[in-house]
Amino acid sequence: MTTMTETSARFREFKMPDVGEGLTEAEILKWFVQPGDTVTDGQVVCEVETAKAAVELPIPFDGVVHELRFPEGTTVDVGEVIIAVDVAPGSGDAPAAAEPVREPVAPAAVPEAEPEAPKGRQPVLVGYGVAETSTRRRARKGAEIPGPAAAAIQAEINGHGAKAPESRPLAKPPVRKLAKDLGIDLAAVVPTGEGGVITREDVHAAAAPAPAEAPVRAEEAPAVPGPAAAVPAAGRETRIPVKGVRKAIAQAMVGSAFTAPHVTEFVTVDVTRTMKLVAELKEDKDMAGVRVNPLLIIAKALLVAIRRNPGINAAWDEANQEIVQKHYVNLGIAAATPRGLIVPNIKDAHDKALPQLAEALGELVSTAREGRTSPAAMAGGTVTITNVGVFGVDTGTPILNPGESAILAVGAIKLQPWVHKGKVKPRQVTTLALSFDHRLVDGELGSKVLADVAAVLEQPKRLITWG
Fold first, then answer.
1. What is the Cα–Cα distance from 222 to 232, expressed in whole angstroms?
2. Cβ neighbours of residue 373 under 8 Å, at least 6 residues apart?
3. Backbone angles phi, psi at 246, to 5 degrees
4. Above 70 in pLDDT, residue 38?
5. Would you call 254 exposed, middle or buried from its count of C-beta atoms within 10 A (0-12, 13-18, 19+)?
6. Between the N and C ends of the chain, which has fewer C-beta atoms within 10 Å?
7. Is 438 a known active-site residue?
8. 365 phi, psi to nearest 5 deg
């Protein structure tokens, strides 16, 4: 979706589009252009993260960048202007440029309510100050800044971080609350933030008991992997903001776990013949150019089981109190990414032959690893596979992807002693776990699906006889 407005014949504004399905906001992760840069129609100007994925935004016209309305790390509502472009440079005097993009600065004596956003581009004066990880812009209507407070703010900005004339310590409202909860006098806290602003870490440091040896500086604390920059707290803990994809996942999983009554069943199966088939397919010329692995055969086995037991491929419609039977399979594959677990799906997987299914799986995985999965690729899933075996885990009790009725967990494939043809022999063995929504899938149906998947993996020739 392209969103833009025309401020004049010369200047055009590009608004934050709805890059998903009814999403209301997105965070600007990175700008690829700066004021003065020339852009062309279709050129990617920034990357944003929604509750579903990271998406690159192309500009829909040619010109020269006049203004970036928000800095990186800002969460912007859909429909707000994010960039202005001069589409006819050199044709006349340009209007006065708005203040350059900068990180908001915490004021010296400002009421905790945020002011209404002024017309035109103005520096953000009231809010949550300098952000180590991200900032959020949310104007509150009806709030006004008293004259003395406004003067103090202007003095702060004009001085580029110089200490405000008032003696009240500079701190964001949440930091003031934290200090109050911990019984810390902000006047006694040494600020480390830009412009003399007291941060959460400063408050935690003031509250921590004096260590026996020199404390570890916050910037020397070990980094913790996560989807966003970590915020160290006195060297003893790390706080990672929960937002974007990870926040959406957390909310969805909680909703799923406490809405759908989960049942999980397990089966351990000898997959030696499946592993032999994988080895043979890797040498097959018809499979040249595609990745062949056990997950491919497991996916095909699940599709066969769904065809034999179509009731598993359904969803519960709470609003209408109906079971919605799906006559297609959009097969979800859980993928771990730096931004969290996502579940893109292969559209109409039931119609794909093995080579096409292998190609689709390979593209899905590579796209997810590169962080290029689109919101559309994660919408409309019907049944999901999660491969916990890649981490050496034997099995698990997976939580249903919201809106789906079943999810299959695949454990690690290991060489184990197994009774085969009356003798104990080393065989390739794995454990499968199927979680399903007991509102629409009873124990018989769930058991049949799991048993069919296991039967195909034990005797992969059933892909032909049952297919």
1. 9
2. 53, 335, 337, 342, 344, 367
3. -65, -40
4. yes
5. exposed
6. N
7. yes
8. -70, -45
Tell me the pTM: 0.56
- Identify which of 19, 23, 20 has the alpha carbon closest to the alpha carbon of residue 46: 19
Which structure tokens are listed for 297?
A: 């055969």
C-alpha closest to that of 399 among 237, 212, 259, 245: 259
pLDDT in tens, 73-132: 888 888 999 999 998 887 655 554 444 444 443 333 434 444 444 444 333 322 333 333
Residue in 340, 432, 337, 450 with CA at minimum distance from that of residue 389: 432
Closest by alpha carbon to 74, among 12, 26, 132? 26
**Enclosing H/E stretch for 420:** strand 414-420
Q: What is the mean pLDDT of residues 330-345?
A: 86
Q: What number is the average pLDDT over the span 238-259? A: 73
**For residue range 362-378, what is the model confidence (pLDDT) as tens digits?**
999 888 888 788 888 88
Query: By CB neighbour count within 10 A (0-12 exposed, 13-18 middle, 19+ buried), where does 68 fall?
Result: buried
User: CA 370, 371, 372, 373 torsion: positive or negative?
Assistant: positive
The answer to whether residues 371 and 339 touch, using CB atoms and an 8 Å cutoff, is: yes
- The pair of structure tokens assigned to 338 is 């730096």
> What does the radius of gyration of the chain's CA atoms come to, in whole angstroms?
28
pLDDT score for 114: 41
Question: Residue for token digits 């080579």?
Answer: 355
DSSP 209: P
How far is 16 from 19, CA to CA, in rounded Å?
8
DSSP 60: S
Give the active site residue among 66, 262, 327, 438.
Answer: 438
